[in-house]
Design a protein that fits this description.
Phage tail proteins - horseshoe like beta roll fold, three-stranded mixed beta sheet, 13-stranded mixed beta sheet, mainly beta, about 10% helix, Phage tail protein beta-alpha-beta fold
Amino acid sequence: MQNDEVVVLVANAKGRARVDKFVSYTIDADLYSPEGSFSFECDSKYDMNRGNLCQIFVNRKCVMAGIIDTVRRSLSRSGPKMEIEGRSVASVLADSSVTKFGTLPRTLPQLAERLVKDLPFLSRKDFVFNSGSDKDKIKRKFVELSPGDSVFDVLKKAANSLGFLFWASPDGSLVFDKPVERGKADFRIHAFENGEEMDYIEGSVTETLNGQHSLIKVIGESQDDSDIKYVAASVKNDDFPFYRPLVVNWNENEGPAKKTAELQLATEKASAIQLEYTMSGHSQNGIPWTINAFCDVEDHYNGAVDSYLIKRRTFTLSRSEGKRTRLELQPGGSL
């Protein structure tokens, strides 16, 4: 196993501090949460303070851009200790409420620019608009605000209404893109049926029927010239073993009924099977494990042979276990 290099660069008042010696750490990123988090424990004192920006690198590749929230220094007879905690830069969106009400722009680029105008660390250039996400017009009901709404919630709601995923990439970019059901795999996990050869420390596959349905039917009302018409769309889940229907309320402001049904089905299928693996080190062939990437799984013992999306990744270091990576995977296509 290669010795993956972990380095933290902190922007401070004197320029930059470099941290590359740790007692322990945890670096956590989740595709469906804006608040990636990190914590470090060191036995040396470094020049850093709460509010400092930092970048975390594994094998010279940025795996998180963050803000230091907490710095704790202590001294005992066993020596000095410094503990650092923080979250990704995207946490600014989750922590900040929208303060300016009124009519908001109805395209994602204009909406993002308006909402982050007064926020620190972020600007329009930090947003990436893929798959035509900068073109579609948002229905007005999806940019209506309530007191207490966070900037992240408003952007996520607007993006999801158009069928786009809104997520924070490891380098700090804020990305609008279509959820991908299938893609070229960047990683591979395998274990043979007899368990004699496997490249993970521990692995599990959980399959469930909870929250799943065989048929999803979307029903609502459309008002046109005082003439009420019932409209419906339906999709089937051919993988479900018996008949269990779901009826979802819908109105025409939510977009095409068929899309609503298909997104519901994709979400259910993604939660039907969950994979968890613990790997040695932080990379495969020198490439750090990352979220929103596909991994070919050939785990005959646990009954999973397919390509799955990495939805959560946690790097850890401890004296007892060394460097490890915990992965959570699921089928692609979910918002």
